[in-house]
Task: inverse folding
């Protein structure tokens, strides 16, 4: 059984931990409001842009017409798949990072079973150890986000530029983006999205704005401008969703940790009081026994 001194030290240690988790919870809650607003504000634009690109693409011979951008037409192959996995650089966020990596690993296993070649492009540091251990030698690049306090459009542009260069240089045929879509502080949804080449839905032949439109310049010229921008916007949206999801997961995890620390403090305090009472009782018995012996 632990001594009174040891129990007192443990209680003090848990109380210190509880202060840290409580502070982290409050910080995450404050950041969550801003991150959630940014993620929700980006959704309409990214969805609309994706719909416009798909609508334009469907008008150009199904997206495979002569002279179509490689970002639309594809490489003509479906052999090498690049999995772009967006994680954070920090922990203490529950299963946030693990769930994204789990979704990417499941996709990689599925593709490998189909005989495809799989490569990984990592955003953030947290996913690297697991992916490197599970799929050694398959990580081809990593984008460092440690210098940024929150996601910026410039980051998304840089990532999109690197991915586009890799694609045009024949490094892969299809790119899948993995991130966590924010639903609430309690729920974040691991999401997969094909970003290169652009995926045209079956119903994309309907105009994205619901009316007959004549384009000036041509659909091809507009697409040449919109396709690279669409890749950047989809990546930026994913970074914003991830940021909100991370703060929500962190707030929830730290709230649970704070509650657990409180429960442990109560248990240790009861144990301490019982041990102290037992020690006092023992001393009283010894004193009484000594007095009777006299």
Result:
């Amino acid at each position: 059984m632990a001594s009174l001194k040891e129990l007192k030290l443990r209680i003090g240690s848990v109380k210190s931990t509880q202060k840290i988790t409580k502070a982290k919870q409050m910080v995450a809650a404050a950041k969550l409001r801003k991150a959630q607003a940014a993620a929700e504000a980006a959704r309409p634009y990214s969805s609309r842009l994706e719909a416009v690109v798909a609508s334009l693409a469907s008008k150009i011979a199904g997206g495979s017409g002569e002279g179509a951008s490689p970002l639309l037409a594809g490489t003509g192959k479906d052999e090498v798949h690049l999995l772009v996995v967006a994680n954070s650089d920090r922990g203490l966020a529950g299963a946030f990072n693990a769930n994204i990596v789990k979704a990417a690993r499941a996709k990689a296993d599925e593709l490998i079973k189909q005989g495809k070649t799989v490569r990984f492009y990592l955003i953030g540091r947290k996913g690297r150890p697991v992916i490197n251990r599970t799929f050694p030698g398959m990580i081809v690049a990593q984008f460092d986000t440690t210098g940024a306090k929150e996601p910026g459009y410039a980051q998304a542009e840089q990532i999109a530029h690197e991915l586009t260069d890799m694609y045009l240089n024949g490094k892969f045929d299809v790119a899948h983006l993995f991130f966590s879509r924010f639903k609430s502080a309690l729920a974040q949804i691991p999401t997969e999205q094909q970003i290169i080449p652009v995926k045209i839905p079956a119903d994309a032949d309907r105009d994205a704005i619901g009316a007959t439109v004549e384009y000036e310049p041509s659909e091809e010229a507009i697409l040449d401008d919109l396709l690279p921008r669409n890749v950047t916007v989809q990546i930026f949206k994913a970074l914003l969703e991830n940021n909100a999801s991370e703060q929500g997961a962190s707030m929830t995890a730290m709230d649970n940790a704070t509650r657990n620390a409180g429960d442990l403090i109560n248990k240790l305090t009861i144990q301490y009081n019982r041990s102290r009472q037992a020690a006092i009782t023992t001393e009283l018995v010894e004193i009484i026994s000594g007095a009777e012996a006299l």
